[in-house]
Amino acid sequence: MTVARFLPDMKSPTGRALRRFVGNPSAMLGLALMVAFLLVMFIYPAVSAIGPNSIDLLAINKPPSLAHWLGTDGVGRDVFARLLEGGRVSLLVALTSSVASLVIGFAVGAVAGLGGRFADAGAMRAVDVAMTLPPVILLLVLASITGPGIGPTILVISLLSWPVLSRLVRSRLLELGQRDFVVASRGMGAGLGSLIRRHALPNTIDILVVFVTLQVANAILLEAGLSFLGLGVPPPDASWGNMLFAARSTTVLTNYPWQWMFPGLALVVVVLAINFIGDGLRDAFDPRSEGG
Amino acid sequence: MAAASADNSAIETARAAPHSSQTVGSPALSVQSLRVTFGTNQGTLTAVEDIGLNIAPGKTLALVGESGSGKSVTSLAIIRLLAGRGRISEGSIALRGKDGAVKDLAQMAEPELEAIRGNDLGMVFQEPMTSLNPVLTVGEQIAEPIRIHMGLSRRDAMLRAIEMLDRVGIPAPAARARQYLHEFSGGMRQRVTIAIALACDPVLLLADEPTTALDVTVQMQILNLLRKLQAEQGMAMLFVTHNLGVVAEIAHEVAVMYAGQIVEQGSVREVLKTPRHPYTRGLLACVPQLGSASALKNSGSPLFSIPGMVPSLRDMPKGCRFAARCPHAQPKCTVDTPEPVLTDTGNRVRCIRWNEI
Amino acid sequence: MTLYLVRRFAAGILLLLALSMLVFFLLRLAPGDPISSYIDPMASMTEADMERLRQSLGLDQPLPFQYVYWLGEALSGDLGRSLQRNGQPVLDLLSTSIGPSMLLMLTGSTLAIIFGVIIGIVGAVRRDGPVDLTLAALSSLGVSSPAFLTSLVGLYVFSGVLQWAPAGGMQDPGMPFTVSGLLKHLALPALILAFGQTALIARYMRSSLLEVLHQDYIRTARAKGVPGRMVILKHAVRNALLPVVTLIGSTLGLAVGGAIFIESVFNWPGMGLLMVTAVEARDYPLIMGGTLMVGAWVILANIMTDVAYAFIDPRIKVG
User: Could you tell me which residues come within 8 angstroms of residue A107 by beta carbon, excluding any fewer than 6 positions away?
Assistant: First the structure.
């Protein structure tokens, strides 16, 4: 609340939303966790001699110790270093794929919402069909076509995640399409491109921001799920999912729990933190939410 | 529950023994210096204060006022169903039950109240569209208080529910009892809520704007029904309304509320004919007279309305609460707090200048 | 009612057709020769044999014709042969694995609905009480914990450390089938499947009930002298359940996703495990068949939900 006082221009809608966001304790907690995690993730490799793939043959399957804070895995790699490396890979995959599905989802939604009846019907039927399957099944189908790898994983997750967004964008734009200024711009000969730039983008920016935030959390889970099944990021690259993949061996699961528990914990904490931020943003943009 | 199940045939009792016979003279309801407060984040607000009401069996008292005057709060306080953080901070609510014993509802705990509500005390709410449960049949909803309070079996309770539907003028009651809410029109729904409220033959019926949400023709039907049922069952009625036309139609006594206080109270005849409080006069002037429309139109004068607004609960003015809107206000009106005084016509008026104006 | 059902099923079949088209064309994008899905890998064939087969199957035709051919075969019950598992027919593989999957998903979802509704009621009635706060914490956790992680934790704690549950499978190996043995193996995966969904249902039930408790008819019930507990159980819960029923359809759909991971961690011989091994081996006929089966299940679950809703809510007249 005290921070809120120093924010600029509190009367504008964006300013009010920002103030509500800052006043939301769980969103702030999520933000603090994320910032802390990002700092550790990027500073640690610079100060530590232990790389994610450096092998310590004297420490194989060793529990947490001073030398290896979170223990080591079956070939003597440091779990903490791999966990941070895995975080970088997971976030890379998540951010890239979220932005990609943002672009696809917005484009489809905008064309459906502004492009007239036929474009709308076509786009929305495609969305319906894509949304019939549970996401994980579609993920498997796509993964079976592309095969494993970081690039294919990004592609698969991007292709999977846009339909929800395009529905949201479309319904907002249909609401908007009735309004005078869109009609006026059309009347003045504005093309679809300029309509999207001048009207669709500014009027859906709140949807886009919230989507991309929550989608990052979602994509982290999808990547981890794929890699856990051995269909996502393949070793030796580290990812939280493929670190958990090791625990499908009963020996690792029961005898070396630090090898999978810590990446699992990191996964939950990061996803939780991002969800908190995303929920906070959604509440902040929602004019019906209280306070502010 | 005990009172009702003591009778051998509860169904017969409803018609055979109106309460009026056993309680002549003493009121069915007597409210004394009632005060209701609401806790808010900014402190405690007083919604109504110093409310005193007496209603005899078989009689109707109308509680009249603008929205926000505290009339609904008063009726909800009597049945002890104040929403949220509302509570009775002062006063007593004496109800003479079906067994003849006088109980103070203001002091009762929840389990005892549950035995009174729907039993000695029935209530009809304003919104017939939302005040019935959409997923239970209408018959079940009427039978429910009968089973709870009279201890009748499911079957007998349903028979009495059907009888109640018949009495509130719903055709084909046995078939209708099996239907759901969405198959009933607004006026029919209000008949159902009346059937629920009267199912256990209460001594007092609280009717909170029961006709406000209805069409004018349906309004008249409901008023006639209430009058007819009152004549049959002999219950007392507290009728909350903002409509003075309705008051003349149904009530014997009237209490006019303004900003959480009763400003004038007396028999309907006296109050409507010779109103003493400037607010009552204002209200009466707001009611367009039948047949006067063309006269109004020809003279070009607008419908009369009281200028200004009801003061907020957060900052009640000192002295008379109506002073700011009163055409007769004098400086002393904003200093002295008026107490109710008895007038020559038997009304009680909360105005220090009642006999000067 | 019959007309409504017919219409719903017709729409469902159309959706399924569209889905099969989507998946068919997607899978044709994949590398590899589609002819292999029609060959019994055990039989030896010459190049010339292959070419003849290709022609007879229409695989030298353009894609849309191929789809029509595939559809005709599928409708007559031939979904092709698996590329692994000695070329068993896809339909046989699917039909043996659908039972275990159904058992797991229905048990898990039933548990989730029961727990979710109860927790949601307690959370709403004792708002901001200990149960409510625990629920809020658990539902955040439930939404953020993927099924593969909760499966691992569950397996580690209950099977590894506490030794309460078997490590996986549906039966103890080499033992005759018993119901108690099945239940022992089912309990842990079903509870884990229920965990994530319980949070979702409980959250939804809670907010639905809170909204209902503000309705006028709740006040009417209290004005009738209905005791507080009955006001909630009879008047409020029944109304609050209506929107929750619509959630059950999507719950059954979500269960498929969770079941895939849980089946592969617990070695549960269901569709999920089958699909994962199919994807690992790029067994396209099996992937195609499995996907359609799942799609049909989701569509059916949604139809059943709508029908159930129509039955429960007296305001909806179907027919």
Answer: A166
pLDDT in tens, B217-257: 888 889 999 999 999 988 999 999 988 888 988 999 999 99
CA distance C219 to C222: 5
Residues C97 and C42 reside in one and the same domain: no
The residues pairing with B86 across neighbouring beta strands, listed in sequence order, are B38
Question: Do residues C178 and C186 lie in contact, with contact meaning Cβ atoms separated by under 8 Å?
Answer: no
Judged by CB atoms closer than 8 Å, whether chains meet at B118 and C238 is answered as no
From A129's Cα to the closest Cα of chain C, the distance in A is 6
User: Is the Cβ pair C242, B193 closer than 8 Å?
Assistant: no
Q: Which of 191-230 (C) contact B at CB < 8 A?
A: 215-217, 219-228
Whether residue C245 sits in one domain with residue C99: yes
The answer to the question of residue B295 being in a domain is: no
**Beta-sheet strand order (sheet of B236-241):** B121-124, B204-208, B236-241, B60-64, B253-258, B261-267, B348-349, B341-342
Domain count, chain A: 1
Q: C98 phi and psi, to 5 degrees?
A: -75, -35
Nearest CA of chain C to the CA of B302: how many Å? 38
The predicted-structure confidence for A22-68, as pLDDT tens digits, reads as follows 888 888 999 999 999 899 888 887 777 777 777 777 778 878 877 77
Interatomic CA distance for residues C69 and B48, integer angstroms: 80
The answer to whether C315 contacts B127, with C-beta atoms less than 8 Å apart, is no
One domain for residues C109 and C137: yes
Q: Across all residues in chain C, what is the average pLDDT?
A: 83
Could you give the angle at the alpha carbon of C251 between the alpha carbons of C248 and C254, nearest 5°? 160
For residues B281 and B66, what is the distance between their CA atoms, to the nearest angstrom?
Answer: 14
Polymer length in residues for chain A: 292
Neighbouring chains of A at 3+ CB pairs under 8 Å are C
d(C-alpha B26, C-alpha B95), whole Å: 10
Chain C residue at shortest CA distance from A229: C276
- Give chain A's radius of gyration (CA, Å): 22
Average pLDDT over residues A111-134: 80
Is C in contact with B (3 or more beta carbon pairs below 8 Å)? yes
- Nearest CA distance, A168 vs chain C (angstrom): 18
- Model ipTM value: 0.83
Q: Looking at chain A, which residue has its C-alpha nearest residue C154?
A: A253
Which chains have at least 3 CB atom pairs separated by less than 8 Å from chain C?
Answer: A, B
Residues B148 and B210: beta-carbon distance below 8 Å: no
- Residue from A26, A136, A269 whose CB has the most chain C CBs within 10 Å, to mutate: A136
Give A132 to chain C, closest Cα distance, Å.
7
Average pLDDT score, chain B: 84
C233 interface with B at CB cutoff 8 Å = no
Residue B298 has pLDDT above 80, yes or no: no
- Number of domains chain B contains: 1
Q: Are residues C115 and C263 in the same domain?
A: yes
pLDDT of residue B7: 42
Query: How is residue B120 written in tokens?
Result: 């000695």
* Domain boundaries, position C175: 90-312
CB contact at 8 A, A15 and A262: no
pLDDT, one tens digit per residue, over A245-256 is: 887 877 777 888
